C-alpha cells in the first residue's frame, strides 16, 4: 500500500471517511446469510407488486444450491445466468455461489456467435434462463451445439403470479419449452428440502466468484475474473462511502439496470442485499414507470446511467410527482454531462452524483462525496483503499503531474487479478507494479479529483492533434435544444479524422441547422475540435444497459463509406 502522505486526495476526503479504512472481505454468499439473519422478515425483493422476504429468499437460495449440486455444481463448475431483472437472478446467483460454483453473466442482447464464444471460453456447463421468446430459443439452440450440458428454464410469473399486459409487454411473450434429459424447469430445480453441501471457502482473494465479460468493443470479449474478495471489498468500499447516507434494513432501491452488467450487479443487487434493502425490480427502463415507483413506494436510492437521467429530466412528471423520498441518485456506466447533472438535481430535488469505474474494478473506482460540493466535470475522488495515478499515454513508466492528461491507472482490492485464460491480455493490461491500465484518458488535479476526458479508443486524431469527443459533447449539451449527443471520429481526407455529432433534439425544440450549431460552438471549442458534420436523429443507438452506443454509430459510418 502506498504511503498516505503521497496521496493528494486525502485532504479532500469527507471528515467522516478514512481512505485507509479497514475493508472486510470474505465469501460473497455470506452477505445474504448475514442479511437473512438480521432482516429475516423484511422484504428483499418487490417484483411486479409481489414481495419476497429475506427469510424466503434465503430458503429459495438453499433449495437452488441443493438442486444445482444434483446437477454437478461445485468448486470449478461454471453456471451461466441468461436472465432479466427478476427474482430468478437473485436466486440463481446466490444459489450458484452457495453450491460452490462460479457465476458467468450473459447478456440477452449478445449476438449468437458471442453467446457461443462465451459458453466455450468460460467453460459454462449449465445455463439458467426464462421461457421468454427473447431468451429460451437462443439457449435451446446451444444444447448439442456447444459444451452446454443442462438448461434450467423458469417462468416469469412463478414468483409473482399474473402480470399486467404492460409488464408482460416489456419482456415479450413466453414460448413452449421442450423438457427432456438436458432441460428442466426452475420449479423442479427448487423441488427439494434445501439440504445442500457447504463447501469450505478457500482464500477469497484467489477464489473465483464471477466471470464478467467485457463488452468486446475492441475485439473478442474477455472474461474479467472477479474473486470473492474483489466483490466483498467493493461492497465494503460502497458501505464506507455511504455509511452516513444509508441505514441498513431501511432503504428501498429502484433496480432498472440489467443485472448482467457489473454496475447493476454490484450496486443494485449485491450491495442492496448487503444493506438489507428492499430492491424494486423493473424489467426495463420506462421514465413514467420509474417516476411513479419513486412517488408511490418512497424509493430512497436510484442508481442509473446518464441516458436515464436525461429521460427523467425531460419528462413532465419529474416536476409534478413527489420525489422527496430520494436520498441518493448516482450515475455510472458512462460520463455524465454537467448540464444533465445540474438540470436533474434541480428538478428532482436530489443531488445527482457521479462515479467512475469499470468491469475490471468491480464497478467502482471513484466517488463524489454526497454532501460535498462537486467539481464540474470531475467524476470524484479515488474510493477507499484504491490508488489512482495518471500514466503517460506512450506507455512509458511513471506518473504525470497534476493537470496533465494521460491514461488512468488504478490498483486496489477491488481490481481484477486478470482475464480468464488470457495471460497475454492480463500482461498487456497490468503494469509491473500491479496497476490496471484502464484505457481511459484523464487527469488528476492538485487536490486529487479525477477528470475523465475520454476513452483512448474513442480519441480522434485530427491533423496530429488529440481530440476528445467528450469535450465536444459537453459543449453541445449546453445548447438548449439538445437532449442527447454522441460524437465519433470519421475519415477525413485532409485531417485524417474529424469529429461528427449525432444529435437527438428535445421534444418540441426547433430544428437545429449545422450552421447554427457551429456558431453556437464558437468560443466553446478549439479550432482543432470543430465539427465536420452533424446528423439529427429521432433516437440514438444504445447498449444493453442504456448507454449511448458509439460502436453502432462507427459501424454505420463505415458501412456508409464503403457503399459510397
Could you describe the 3D structure shown?
- With 564 residues, the chain is an alpha/beta fold.
- The chain has a domain at 460-563: ANL, C-terminal domain (GMP Synthetase, Chain A, domain 3), CATH 3.30.300.
- It is 30% helix and 22% strand.
- It has 17 helices and 25 strands.
- Strands 7-6-5-3-4-8-9 form a 7-stranded mixed sheet. A 4-stranded mixed sheet has the order 2-1-11-10, sandwiched between helices. It has a 4-stranded antiparallel sheet with strand order 17-18-19-20.
- Strand 21 and strand 22 form a beta hairpin.
- The radius of gyration is 23 Å and the shape is globular.
- It starts with 28 loop residues before the first helix and ends with a helix.
- The mean pLDDT is 90.
List the helices and strands and how they pair.
Layout: H1 29-38, E1 43-47, E2 50-53, H2 54-70, E3 78-82, H3 87-98, E4 102-105, H4 112-122, E5 124-130, H5 136-140, E6 150-154, H6 165-171, E7 183-185, H7 186-189, E8 208-213, E9 223-227, H8 228-242, E10 252-255, H9 262-274, E11 278-281, H10 287-297, E12 301-304, H11 306-314, H12 317-320, E13 328-331, H13 338-348, E14 352-354, E15 366-367, E16 381-382, E17 387-391, E18 406-411, H14 423-429, E19 436-444, E20 450-455, E21 460-462, E22 465-467, H15 469-477, E23 482-492, E24 496-505, H16 514-521, E25 533-536, H17 550-563
Helix pairs in contact: 1-2, 2-3, 8-9, 11-13
Amino acid at each position: 500500500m502506498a504511503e498516505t502522505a503521497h496521496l493528494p486526495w486525502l485532504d479532500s476526503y469527507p471528515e467522516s471517511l478514512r481512505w485507509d479504512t479497514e475493508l472486510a472481505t470474505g465469501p460473497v454468499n455470506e452477505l445474504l446469510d448475514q442479511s437473512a439473519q438480521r432482516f429475516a422478515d423484511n422484504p428483499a425483493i418487490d417484483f411486479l407488486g409481489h414481495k419476497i422476504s429475506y427469510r424466503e429468499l434465503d430458503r429459495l437460495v438453499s433449495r437452488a444450491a441443493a438442486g444445482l449440486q444434483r446437477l454437478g455444481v461445485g468448486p470449478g463448475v461454471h453456471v451461466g445466468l441468461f436472465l432479466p431483472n427478476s427474482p430468478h437472478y437473485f436466486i440463481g446467483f446466490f444459489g450458484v455461489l452457495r453450491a460452490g460454483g462460479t457465476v458467468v453473466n450473459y447478456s440477452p442482447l449478445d449476438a449468437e456467435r458471442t453467446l457461443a464464444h462465451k459458453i466455450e471460453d468460460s467453460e459454462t456447463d449449465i445455463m439458467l434462463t426464462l421461457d421468454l421468446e427473447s431468451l429460451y430459443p437462443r439457449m435451446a439452440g446451444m444444447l448439442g451445439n456447444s459444451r452446454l450440458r443442462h438448461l434450467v428454464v423458469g417462468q416469469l410469473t412463478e414468483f409473482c403470479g399474473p402480470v399486467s399486459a404492460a409488464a408482460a409487454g416489456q419482456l415479450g411473450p413466453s414460448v413452449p419449452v421442450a423438457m427432456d434429459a438436458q432441460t428442466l424447469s426452475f420449479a423442479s430445480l427448487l423441488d427439494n428440502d434445501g439440504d445442500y453441501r457447504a463447501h469450505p471457502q478457500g482464500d477469497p482473494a484467489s477464489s473465483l466468484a464471477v466471470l464478467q465479460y467485457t463488452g468486446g468493443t475492441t475485439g473478442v470479449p474477455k472474461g474479467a475474473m472477479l474473486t470473492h474478495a474483489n466483490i466483498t471489498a467493493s461492497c465494503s468500499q460502497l458501505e464506507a462511502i455511504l455509511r452516513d447516507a444509508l441505514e441498513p434494513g431501511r432503504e428501498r432501491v429502484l433496480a432498472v439496470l440489467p443485472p448482467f452488467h457489473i454496475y447493476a450487479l454490484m450496486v443494485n443487487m449485491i450491495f442492496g442485499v448487503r444493506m438489507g434493502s428492499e430492491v424494486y425490480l423493473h424489467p426495463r427502463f420506462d421514465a413514467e414507470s420509474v417516476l411513479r415507483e419513486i412517488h408511490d413506494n418512497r424509493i430512497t436510492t436510484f442508481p442509473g446511467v446518464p441516458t436515464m437521467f436525461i429521460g427523467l429530466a425531460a419528462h413532465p412528471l419529474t416536476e409534478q410527482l413527489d420525489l422527496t423520498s430520494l436520498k441518493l441518485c448516482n450515475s455510472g456506466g458512462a460520463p455524465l454531462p454537467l448540464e444533465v447533472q445540474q438540470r436533474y438535481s434541480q428538478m428532482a430535488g436530489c443531488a445527482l452524483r457521479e462515479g467512475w469505474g469499470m468491469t475490471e474494478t468491480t464497478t467502482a473506482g471513484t466517488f463524489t462525496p454526497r454532501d460535498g460540493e462537486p467539481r464540474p466535470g470531475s467524476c470524484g475522488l479515488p474510493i477507499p483503499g484504491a490508488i489512482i495515478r495518471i500514466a503517460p499515454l506512450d506507455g512509458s513508466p511513471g506518473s504525470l503531474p497534476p493537470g496533465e492528461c494521460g491514461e488512468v491507472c488504478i490498483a486496489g482490492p477491488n481490481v481484477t487479478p486478470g482475464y480468464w485464460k488470457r495471460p497475454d491480455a492480463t500482461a498487456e493490461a497490468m503494469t509491473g507494479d500491479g496497476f490496471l491500465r484502464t484505457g481511459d484518458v484523464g487527469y488528476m488535479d492538485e487536490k486529487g479529483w479525477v477528470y475523465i476526458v475520454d476513452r483512448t479508443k474513442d480519441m480522434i486524431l485530427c491533423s496530429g492533434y488529440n481530440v476528445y469527443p467528450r469535450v465536444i459533447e459537453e459543449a453541445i449539451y449546453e445548447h438548449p435544444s439538445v437532449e442527447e449527443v454522441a460524437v465519433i471520429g470519421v475519415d477525413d481526407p485532409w485531417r485524417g479524422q474529424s469529429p461528427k455529432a449525432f444529435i437527438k433534439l428535445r421534444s418540441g425544440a426547433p430544428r437545429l441547422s449545422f450552421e447554427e450549431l457551429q456558431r453556437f460552438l464558437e468560443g466553446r471549442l478549439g479550432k482543432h475540435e470543430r465539427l465536420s458534420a452533424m446528423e439529427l436523429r429521432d433516437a440514438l443507438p444504445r447498449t444493453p444497459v442504456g448507454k449511448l452506443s458509439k460502436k453502432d454509430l462507427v459501424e454505420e459510418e463505415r458501412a456508409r463509406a464503403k457503399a459510397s
